[in-house]
Design a protein that fits this description.
Blueprint (H helix, E strand, L loop, with lengths): L2 H14 L18 H12 L10 H6 L3 H18 L7 H5 L8 H7 L1 H4 L1
Helix pairs in contact: 2-6
Length: 116
């Protein structure tokens, strides 16, 4: 999701469909992406080769101060399992929108000058 351009679409949906949305969760995401899907989209738009290399927990933590290392590791592990939003189905939230949120590839394209 392109936060600066898409977040308002979800807020608008919550307001527009009130009171039906009252007490409900609106998942502000257009899709779930794996690391390999992100890199594939990036490569296609940017015309560069990419590769995903998963590292073990101790290596990940070695790049940070001990004070934050475990906390950040646990946050990253939550993205893996149970997954962002706990893997909840995004279809109901997306059906509330008047406009589709930006795809990953569209986001990369729109920000192409910022990447390299």
């Amino acid at each position: 999701m392109d936060v600066s351009n898409d977040y308002g679409k979800f807020v608008k949906a919550g307001i527009k469909h009130f009171p039906a949305t009252s007490g409900k969760t609106i998942y502000a995401a257009g899709s779930y992406y794996t690391p390999n899907e992100l890199l594939k989209g990036f490569s296609e738009v940017m015309g560069v080769e990419t590769a995903f290399q998963k590292i073990d927990a101790d290596t990940f933590k070695s790049f940070m101060t001990p004070k934050v290392a475990q906390e950040l590791l646990e946050n990253m592990l939550l993205l893996e399992e149970p997954g962002y939003f706990g893997g909840a189905d995004l279809a109901e939230s997306l059906s509330l929108l008047d406009e589709a949120p930006c795809s990953w590839k569209d986001f990369v394209q729109a920000n192409k000058d910022c990447w390299l």
